């Protein structure tokens, strides 16, 4: 048995977790999830039936990790300490992870859905406004190569995926800080190895359909 069982669909946020697995050099088996026929093993592990869901087989126990930001942080802690933050990097690292998982994700989804925050209710939304959130992201990435400064960490897998997808699908504006950041990430071997797997699976599904 491999160390990890990875439930995913290539047309999902599972691409983030696969990249994280490759950055960590993890030994994993992939279980592809059909949206219309989800395997019972996935539902047992994660009743929401969401992907990605990761199961770590360790020490005679199965540890279930869900939510992409948590999967990234877990893999850094367990399998790739070189991608976890140093003491000096922790503030930027955790801010990047949770900003991406909270305000940024909410703002992008709301914007894509055409949901408008009523005037005077910005504080209830958690992200304020889409424009304010995008401006904050730009400020976080300006003047540095990565989330924690000069060094790539697992926070860049998560936040970087948000930026990478945002530029590809036009849910983020093409600002210089975003484009240069994405270009640095796209040059990584693990990014390209993981991406090639998912793109190949997407192509296979198209041919089969």
Series of secondary-structure elements, N-terminal to C-terminal:
EHEHEEHHHHHHH
Going by helix content, strand content and strand pairing, the class is alpha+beta
Percentage beta strand? 5-15%
**Largest sheet entry:** 4 strands, mixed
Overall pLDDT metric: 96
Extended strand count: 4
Instruction: Count the domains.
Output: 2
CATH C-level of the largest domain: Mainly Alpha
CATH topology of the largest domain: Glutathione S-transferase Yfyf (Class Pi), Chain A, domain 2
Strand line-up of the largest beta sheet: 2-1-3-4
**Oligomerization state of this entry?**
single chain
List unreliable stretches of 5+ residues: none
Notes on the structure:
With 209 residues, the protein is an alpha+beta fold. It folds into two domains: 4-81, Glutaredoxin, CATH 3.40.30; 84-189, Glutathione S-transferase Yfyf (Class Pi), Chain A, domain 2, CATH 1.20.1050.10. It has nine helices and four strands, in the order βαβαββααααααα. The chain has helices at residues 14-23, 40-45, 68-79, 90-113, 122-125, 130-141, 154-168, 176-186, 189-208; strands at residues 4-8, 28-32, 53-58, 61-66. Strands 2-1-3-4 form a four-stranded mixed sheet, with helices on one face. The longest helix has 24 residues, at 90-113. The radius of gyration is 17 Å and the shape is globular. The relative contact order is 0.14.
